[in-house]
Design brief:
The chain is an alpha/beta fold. The chain contains 14 helices and 13 strands. A seven-stranded mixed sheet has the order 2-1-3-4-5-11-13, with helices on both faces.
Length: 386
């Protein structure tokens, strides 16, 4: 009897010591305490970024590597790649890129491998943000810097004021309609309404165009995928029912595809207005041509913000505070300002290092670092939303 009591006492003592050890270990690991943080899920107005914020801890056991998960090979996203690679080189980080090929499941698998490699920073884009969101959270919980272009979650979200971006393009188109088309136009909107974060830009287009009595929107549709090929295929279908088109608006990639389709059937005209968003190099080349209907592109300067994201990834790995959000300021590209814009695309480092030039492209908000990573943004941030 006494032996069995001793066994029971010893067992109880052992178990209690194990439980106490677990409690003590848990209390001593702030990393574990933050791992399941949902981040900031409610809409929050962020203050201006404070670059003089006090230093934080550098993430332990993470590789000094930036990996870019690129949705597809649109020129806009290739511009991000250009900026990121230059920043990584300038800051002494290894740079890697993987291509998801517009496949969110593939992106999830890539992110899983990136996390397993203990990568210190990842920049991700996806055709279906909801599918990859948990994988991005896992990266954040691991202590890595996570940057995204528009959708959450991320330690640094990059977004343009989407309604304003669409508004700037629409106002440029309306000026053309009134001056070159006598206030009358048949309009095609090639949208991205399936991406809720981008839909405000197309709301702005509809709001502006619907005020003109001589304008009719004959097609309002989202190409799939959002690529030059997707825009080409969609315009071929639209042309079967509407052979005369005056205005085409959308992202540069799809509008460039629409232009190709119009040219194939000789339905392109000098008095047309084709305009896009993103400032892609091919769109810039079209604007330069004297005989092209491509009249404007709203630049979001992807190499410049790509370089900035790479710089902030490096800062994070060195234990510095970085912005929680970065606003891209839309610029209407015309023949008058193209030369400076193209120079900035080629040398985004000089733009980033010159505050006056950088402020024409970017505005920073909030502050976060490795120690405060539980405050990552997990809501669709925009500088327009209060």
């Amino acid at each position: 009897m006494r032996d069995s009591q001793n066994v029971w006492v010893n067992s109880w003592f052992f178990v209690s010591r194990v439980l106490l050890a677990i409690i003590l270990i848990g209390n001593s690991l702030p990393v574990r305490a933050q791992q399941q943080s949902p981040g900031i899920t409610h809409r929050t107005v962020l203050p201006a970024f404070n670059p003089a914020a006090k230093p934080c801890t550098s993430p332990p056991d993470l590789a000094r590597v930036i990996t870019y998960v690129e949705e597809n090979e649109r020129e806009f996203l290739q511009g991000v790649d250009h900026g990121l690679s230059l920043a990584a080189k300038d800051r002494g980080l290894e740079y890697r890129k993987v291509l998801a090929e517009s496949d969110p499941i593939k992106a999830v698998e890539q992110l899983r491998s990136i996390r397993a490699a203990q990568t210190g920073a990842v920049i991700a884009t996806s055709s279906n943000p909801a599918v990859i969101s948990h994988s991005l959270q896992e990266m954040i919980w691991s202590g890595a810097f996570v940057g995204t272009i528009v959708p959450p979650p991320a330690t640094l979200i990059l977004n343009a004021p989407q309604y304003t971006t669409g508004q700037v393009l629409t106002e440029t188109a309306i000026q053309h309609i009134n001056s070159k088309l006598a206030g009358k136009a048949k309009v095609v909107l090639l949208t991205q309404d399936s991406m809720e974060y981008l839909s405000p830009r197309f709301d702005a287009m509809r709001d502006g165009l619907n005020k003109l009595p001589g304008v009719s929107i004959i097609a309002d549709i989202a190409p799939k995928p959002v690529t030059k090929e997707g825009g080409y295929a969609m315009m071929k279908t639209i042309l079967l029912a509407n052979s005369d088109i005056d205005v085409v608006l959308g992202a540069d990639a799809v509008v460039l595809g629409a232009l190709q389709a119009l040219r194939e059937v000789h339905k392109d005209r000098l008095d047309q207005f084709l305009g896009g968003i993103d400032g892609e190099p091919e769109a810039v080349s079209e604007i330069k041509k004297a005989n092209s209907p491509y009249k404007a592109s709203i630049a979001l300067s992807s190499p410049v913000f790509g370089y900035a994201m790479g710089e902030y990834a490096a800062d994070w790995l060195e234990g510095k505070s970085v912005p929680q959000a970065m606003g891209i300021l839309p610029i209407a590209l015309t023949t008058q300002n193209l030369a400076q814009y193209e120079a900035d695309l080629l040398d985004p480092a000089s733009v980033y290092k010159d505050q006056v030039r950088r402020d024409k492209y970017l505005k920073m908000y909030g502050s976060i670092c490795y120690d405060t990573r539980d405050q990552y943004l997990n809501f669709p941030w925009s500088s327009e939303r209060k």
